[in-house]
């Protein structure tokens, strides 16, 4: 591809593209809630096809290759065909149709979310991040097959998103769910950073891939101010918000349960109900030893619960520092900003922790230890937000640590926790329950089916070697303080 620097020396570092903020069912005033997200700017070919992600809209069920989405280049940047300014004049119904019925928007949505997750990893780690599959480019198929499924395939170097008929007969596109796209993209990135996490090991290792991908997906959703603001009090418009909505219980009920509810039953067969079930876990339960929680997906919910409870705890403590503008009412924008900021901080911490994790046989204790250790290395003074205290506390309550979490003092001395059960449970990358249920043969079906052979014929060719120095976007190094 043509180098962005050569072809467009004035291309900015960042561009904004419109995405569905969470799910097409989350609406305000009848309109699908959208968000403009910042992603690294790069030269774009039709697809969109950039340096790291190539969207190929091939439907293997119908053997159809849809027209590629194109972005007009004007005034030194690529225009967003679905920006608020472009679609503002449309009625709610026309606005929704413009997004739901346009496969080119679906392609943009998948591209932008995957790029945003990639950028978050590169920001948190301060370096380029490869994909778990070969080559520098990950293929993304937004309408890969007519099936309630979505997964990352290392062999096929891609993310595949299915579509299916919902309960009301309307089509459900998994590529339009922020949660699903972010989750699958995280699988592809985690597979590069710790490839042995897909090997048979303890129940914790099998569960970690799913739990961690859920954490990244959920925190990246909560870091969107539009989502936080909408869920707080069901889309209230007042610039002030009543304190009764800002207690830990109220925030759990509105923000966590609200999002879990909005994720809807339609996608539950693809996505599971990790958030809904994890926030329902009562603190202090002996979940780690329960037979039910030896199943990888169920077990993954424990680590999700720890992180989401920490998110609420820290957010509430930050809100206590915001004064009242009127009796019992606080500034809504400050409340939303604090929530999004806490989600962003936790997301960065969660990703950074991977560098301090063992290369294989990870346990939840290892991950939490890595999380606390790397954060202390990078942000020595945690007194402003108290992330480490909060994480340590919430993890004890849901992951039921029977001993104090190890917090090493020496640089890099990430002491391993005692190993838990070593029952050999294999997890085969993502993502859905169907995909992961290896004994059903579903995985074999998907990866060896004629449909996937057709996909390969569309994307075949030698993989370009991973070359981080060739990447067209620059990301800042990790910050040394939290702003
Ligand atoms: Zn998954």
Describe the protein:
The chain has two domains: 4-193 and 437-464, Elastase, domain 1, CATH 3.10.170.10; 203-399, no CATH class. It is an alpha+beta fold and 483 residues long. Helices cover 42% and strands 12% of the residues. The protein has helices at 4-7, 84-87, 92-100, 103-125, 178-193, 203-222, 225-232, 248-262, 268-271, 274-279, 296-319, 332-352, 364-378, 387-399, 433-436, 442-448, 450-459; strands spanning 14-20, 27-28, 31-32, 34-40, 53-55, 58-59, 64-65, 73-74, 77-78, 138-145, 150-153, 158-165, 171-173, 240-242, 329-331. Helix 4 crosses helix 12. The radius of gyration is 22 Å and the shape is globular. Strands 5, 10, 11, 12 and 13 form a five-stranded mixed beta sheet that branches. Bound molecules: zinc ion (ZN). Zinc ion is lined by residues 183, 187, 210, 213, 430-431.
Present as ligands are: zinc ion
Largest sheet: 5 strands, mixed
Number of strands: 15
**Backbone shape:** globular
CATH class of the largest domain: Alpha Beta
Q: Provide the residue-averaged pLDDT.
A: 76
Helix percentage: 40-55%
Architecture of the largest domain, according to CATH? Roll
What Rg, in angstroms, do the CA atoms define?
22 Å
Q: Structural class, from helix and strand content?
A: alpha+beta
The structural domain count equals: 2
CATH topology of the largest domain: Elastase, domain 1
Please give the count of helices.
Answer: 17
Distance between the termini: 37 Å
């Amino acid at each position: 591809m043509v180098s962005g620097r050569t072809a467009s020396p004035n291309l900015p570092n960042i561009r904004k593209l419109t995405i569905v903020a969470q799910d097409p069912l989350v609406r305000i005033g009848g309109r699908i809630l959208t968000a403009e997200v910042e992603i690294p700017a790069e030269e774009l070919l039709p697809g969109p096809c950039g340096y790291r992600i190539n969207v190929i809209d091939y439907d293997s069920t119908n053997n159809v290759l849809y027209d590629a989405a194109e972005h007009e280049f004007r005034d030194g940047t690529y225009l967003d065909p679905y920006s608020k300014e472009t679609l503002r004049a449309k009625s709610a119904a026309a606005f929704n149709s413009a997004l739901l019925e346009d496969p080119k928007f679906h392609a943009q949505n998948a591209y932008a979310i995957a790029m945003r997750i990639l950028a978050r990893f590169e920001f948190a780690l301060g370096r380029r991040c490869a994909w778990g599959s070969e080559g520098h480019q990950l293929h993304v198929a937004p309408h890969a097959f007519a099936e309630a499924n979505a997964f990352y395939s290392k062999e096929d170097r891609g993310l595949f998103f299915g579509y299916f008929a919902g309960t009301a007969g309307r089509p459900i596109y998994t590529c339009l769910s922020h949660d699903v796209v972010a989750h699958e993209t995280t699988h592809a990135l985690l597979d590069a950073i710790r490839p042995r996490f897909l090997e048979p090991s303890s129940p914790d290792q099998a569960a970690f891939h799913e739990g961690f991908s859920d954490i990244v997906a959920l925190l990246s959703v909560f870091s969107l101010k539009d989502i936080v603001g909408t869920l707080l009090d069901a889309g209230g418009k007042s610039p002030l918000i009543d304190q009764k909505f800002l207690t830990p219980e109220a925030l759990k009920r509105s923000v966590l349960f609200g999002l879990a509810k909005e994720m809807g039953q339609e996608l539950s067969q693809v996505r599971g109900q990790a958030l809904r079930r994890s926030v329902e876990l009562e603190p202090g339960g002996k979940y780690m030893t329960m037979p039910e929680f030896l199943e990888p997906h169920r077990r993954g919910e424990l680590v999700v619960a720890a992180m989401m409870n920490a998110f609420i705890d820290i957010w509430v403590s930050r809100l206590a520092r915001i004064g009242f503008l009127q009796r019992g009412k606080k500034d809504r924008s400050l409340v939303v900003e604090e929530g999004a900021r806490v989600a962003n901080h936790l997301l960065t911490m969660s990703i950074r922790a991977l560098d301090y994790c063992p290369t294989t046989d990870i346990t939840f204790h290892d991950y939490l230890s890595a999380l606390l250790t790397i954060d202390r290395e990078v942000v020595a003074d945690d007194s402003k937000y108290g992330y480490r205290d909060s994480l340590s506390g919430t993890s004890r309550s849901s992951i039921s640590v029977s001993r104090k979490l190890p917090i090493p003092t020496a640089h890099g001395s990430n002491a391993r926790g005692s190993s838990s059960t070593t029952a050999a449970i294999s997890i085969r990358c993502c993502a859905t329950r169907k995909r992961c249920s290896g004994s059903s043969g579903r995985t074999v079906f998907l990866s060896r089916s004629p449909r996937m052979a057709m996909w390969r014929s569309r994307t075949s060719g030698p993989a370009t070697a991973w070359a981080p120095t060739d990447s067209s976007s620059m990301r800042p190094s990790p910050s040394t303080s939290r702003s």
